[in-house]
Amino acid sequence: MEVTSDYLQWLTNEFEDSPFWKLLGITMDRLEPGEAVIKMPVKESLLNSNQVMHGGAIASILDSIIGVVIRSSRDVKVATVSLTTQFIAPVKEGALYAEAKTINKGNRIQYVESKVFNDKGEIVGTALGTFAIIKK
Q1: Are 118 and 53 in contact (CB under 8 A)?
Q2: For all residues of the chain together, what is the average pLDDT?
Q3: What is the span of the domain harbouring residue 19?
Q4: Which residues form the Thioesterase domain (predicted)?
Q5: How far apart are CA 79 and CA 53, in angstroms?
Q6: Alpha-carbon distance 2 to 34, whole Å?
């Protein structure tokens, strides 16, 4: 399948209209075939008892960007098989930006690395994802 601008616009709407993305406040910052950046605001409802961004919220943006990157290069559905995360620095304010890079593009399983940055461009977390490719 050739990735068209119509497909990328549909995909943006597909993700941004999902209830989970709305809950977290995630939006598409940039989307091209095989490349994307998504944004998530640091908001009070996503802070933990230490008043920093909850690791689950950070893991969610790391997981989400992998799904976006895979689906931006091929018209498939995906499911997370495994997500290994590393939390590098706390975040208290601003916004987070995530991007991902494909390691291995398999037909049934795909491996992708993702990184999340703060407003200053500093890495605050990384993940290695194993994703199942589900044909439509």
Answers
A1: no
A2: 96
A3: 5-134
A4: 51-122
A5: 25
A6: 12
Mapping DSSP to helix (H, G, I), strand (E, B) and coil, where does residue 41 land? strand
CB burial class (10 A; 0-12, 13-18, 19+) of residue 87? middle
Q: Encoding tokens for residue 85?
A: 């995360």
Task: Give the per-residue pLDDT at 1.
Answer: 65
Radius of gyration of the chain (CA): 14
Tell me which residue of 79, 73, 88, 59 sits closest to 130, measured CA to CA.
Answer: 79
DSSP secondary structure letters along 77-112: EEEEEEEEEEE-S---SSEEEEEEEEEEE-SSEEEE
Q: What is the pLDDT of residue 28?
A: 98
Tell me: the pLDDT tens digits for 99-129? 999 999 999 999 999 999 999 999 999 999 9
3-class secondary-structure state, position 76: coil
Q: Residue for token digits 């290069």?
A: 73
Q: What is the pLDDT of residue 2?
A: 81
Give me the CATH number covering residue 107: 3.10.129.10
